[in-house]
Write a structure and sequence with these properties.
Strand 1 and strand 2 form a beta hairpin. It is elongated, with a radius of gyration of 18 Å. Strands 1-2 form a two-stranded antiparallel ribbon. By secondary structure, the protein is mostly helical. It folds into 2 domains: about 60 residues, Orthogonal Bundle (Arc Repressor Mutant, subunit A); about 60 residues, Iron dependent repressor, metal binding and dimerisation domain (Diphtheria Toxin Repressor, domain 2), CATH 1.10.60.10.
């Protein structure tokens, strides 16, 4: 994906199409909290990039390439979300905000290492619990 903005759209379309089987401009605008005109403009770009299929009166769907990119973005989002959860970020709104800020700038190498760390934490929770309890408390 070229820009964080395009990634946000693609991720939103992926989620909506998973829920409903298709997406509409109004669905995307509502999910991203933006105007329908802005959505229409971006949809033209995504279609030109081969990520999106538009069927008149039937809604939008992702191309196979768009689907694979959407799944990649979702996996990235979930890894970061899981990492923040493991760090003890308990407020879902804070975690969501942080993931949205981080996800567009994290490298593939860093993401791969975070994923490996999460797997290690899952396999060795006592190690992680000891480490977390040694972090300075927030006051």
């Amino acid at each position: 994906m070229a820009t964080p903005n395009q990634e946000d759209y693609l991720e939103a379309i992926w989620f909506i199409t998973q829920e409903k089987g298709y997406a509409r401009v109004t669905d995307i605008a509502e999910r991203l909290n933006i105007s329908q005109a802005s959505v229409s403009k971006m949809l033209r770009r995504l279609k030109a990039d081969g990520l999106l299929e538009v069927e008149r009166y039937r809604g939008l769907s992702l191309t196979p390439y768009g689907e694979s990119q959407g799944q990649r973005l979702l996996a990235r989002h979930r890894i970061l979300e899981r990492f923040l959860e493991q760090l003890g970020v308990s407020d879902p709104a804070v975690a969501y905000h942080d993931v949205e800020g981080i996800e567009h700038y994290v490298s593939a190498e860093t993401l791969e290492r975070l994923s490996a760390l999460i797997q290690y934490i899952d396999q060795h929770p006592e190690w992680w619990d000891a480490m977390i309890h040694n972090l300075p408390s927030r006051k």
